[in-house]
């Protein structure tokens, strides 16, 4: 059985005076399985949430913005959901290439 290790980086920020907390960490999944990562904010940020993936030696890559909109070129096995204070990143059909650190962050439309 192949196993993919997914690291999480708990992001915290003061935007909207909200603190972001990710759980769980770390996450491991069998190739072909499903990974769910949760991000909770201390107060509502509406849908202004983004998910990023970062691999060693590379800059963060935007996966999802506005909580559920897939960024250009991102495989459909990645999906996002939630609003207000509770958000989820789901990776379905996990592949070895998905091994990375994942961040949630407050997102502004201007960040595109």
Automatic annotation (TrEMBL):
GO CC terms of this entry: immunoglobulin complex
A GO biological process held by the record: adaptive immune response
Segments forming domain Ig-like: 10-112
Superkingdom of origin organism: Eukaryota
UniProt KW keywords: Adaptive immunity, Immunity, Immunoglobulin
Organism: Oryctolagus cuniculus
Pfam families: V-set
Protein name, per record: Ig-like domain-containing protein
Highest classification ranks of the organism: Eukaryota, Metazoa, Chordata, Craniata, Vertebrata
């Amino acid at each position: 059985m192949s196993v993919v290790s997914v690291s999480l980086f708990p992001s915290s920020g003061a935007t909207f005076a909200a603190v972001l907390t990710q759980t769980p960490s770390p996450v491991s999944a069998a190739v072909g399985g499903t990974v769910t990562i949760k991000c909770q904010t201390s107060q509502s940020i509406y849908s202004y949430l983004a998910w990023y993936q970062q691999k060693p030696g590379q800059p963060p890559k935007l996966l999802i913005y506005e909580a559920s909109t897939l960024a250009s070129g991102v495989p459909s096995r990645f999906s996002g959901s939630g609003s207000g204070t509770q958000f989820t990143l789901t990776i379905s059909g996990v592949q070895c290439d998905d091994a990375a650190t994942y961040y949630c962050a407050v997102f502004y439309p201007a960040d595109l």
